Amino acid sequence: MLINNDKNTVKAFSVLEAAFSMVITAIVIGLVFVVFTILSERMLDFKKQNQFVADMNRLTYALNKDIFDNEAMAVNEEGIMFTGYSGNKVRYLRNEEYTIREKDGFLDTFQIPMKNFIVDTLQNKSKKVTFQRLRINIDVNKQPMDLRFFKKVYANQLIEKEK
After folding, report:
1. How far apart are CA 85 and CA 157, in angstroms?
2. What sign does the CA torsion over 13, 14, 18, 20 have?
3. Residues in contact with 121: Cβ distance below 8 Å, sequence separation at least 6, in sequence order
4. How far is CA 77 from the centre of its chain?
5. Low-confidence ranges of the chain (pLDDT < 50)
6. What is the pTM for the complete model shown?
7. N or C, which end of the chain has less CB nearby within 10 Å?
8. Is the dihedral of CA 153, 59, 81, 106 positive or negative?
9. Which residues of 140-158 are buried (b: 16+ CB within 10 A; e: fewer)?
10. Nearest partner of 73 among 65, 141, 52, judged by Cα
11. Do the beta carbons of residue 114 and residue 94 sit within 8 Å?
């Protein structure tokens, strides 16, 4: 008499097969973690490189807009102040590590430190047009760089200054 145990058998992995699959899973997870770490570091480096470019673009755009949208420009040790035609004020405050733009209680921070700034007046070669120049010195990769912005000065402004 033959006994057939096919009905009583359960198909399963052996302990050796289960341990082997766990080792393979651990290796795959370790490789994924290493790749993720490398990609994360690269993304942070990329972000830091692009942060300076983005801040430069935002700063130059904001300065250009403030120069042309406002009537007067003044410089003191703290920073630059623009006074609008309606009396509103925009201030750029400098710090050792960053520059802050303040307008109507709204603050904007640029990770670009202004070393010094000068406001002076220039004329074109024919001396018919007068410009007010804002020159800002910044450090780019530990090298000095000048940003220059110009605003045309109209005759009525020159007459008011003479009075």
Report:
1. 12
2. negative
3. 130, 131, 132, 133, 153
4. 24
5. 1
6. 0.67
7. N
8. positive
9. eeeeeeebebebebeeeee
10. 65
11. yes
